[in-house]
Specification:
This protein is an alpha/beta fold. The chain has helices at about 1-15, 15-25, 50-65, 75-80, 95-100, 145-150, 165-170, 185-190, 220-235, 240-245, 250-255, and strands spanning about 25-30, 40, 50, 65-70, 90, 105, 110, 115-120, 135-140, 155-160, 180, 200, 210, 215.
Length: about 260
Amino acid sequence: MLFKSFLSIVLLFLLNPVFVNATNQKVLKVGMELQYPPFEMSEKDGTPSGISVDLAKALGKYLGRKVIIQNIAWDGLIPSLKTKKIDIIISSMTITDKRKKVIDFSIPYAQSNLAILTNPTSGVKSVKDLNQKGKVVAVKKGTTGNIYAIEHLKKAKVLILDKESSAVLEVIQKRADAFIYDQLTIYRDWKNHKKTTVALLNPITKKPGYWGIALRQNQPELKAKINEFIKKAKSDGTFDKFAYKYLKGIKKKFVELNIPFFF
């Protein structure tokens, strides 16, 4: 009888919502697509790495929570957040009004501009050259490049693809006149295909896109803590360390071109 009574007490304690919630709070499930080096990527053994991974770990330490990185395809990130499969998204995600209708964002922690990857025979010198009949623009599904092309390049054919590599291949093989994505990606893709592509790195919009940490709506306490962390990380040199570790060469190129850097 004594053992049964003790077991009942233990079970009641373990099933108590307060205890369960406290246990869950020890884990911070962070969603990201590990396909965007050097921000989100994997080592050869599959270990997540990159700026966003380091950022997630630093945030977890600040919040006192153990971080678990979940690699999720880009178009599955927001659904996973809404259905509580993950707690936040740190995946170089641009804050947009459309996304803010279904999820919430922290204050910005970085900025990025859209740029163009084209080929030597396309005749494309600026984004204006793309908004005409007969032009084909490749974009990655669900990205700000995708959104921009649909809204502003109505005369062109917009080719929506699941992978960045597929969009680049369309440009290389001249089936597309351009690929619109962020400057870092365009610069990296051009470096990998210098003979067959041309990078137009000047921003195609007047205002940059700002990246934020995404979370579910109506979580004021978590949002406040994340914002506090971002402010602290900006002031104490945390983001400078990320840039020095992962973006040293690229930062130099951005300075040469007089393009605003991420941090």
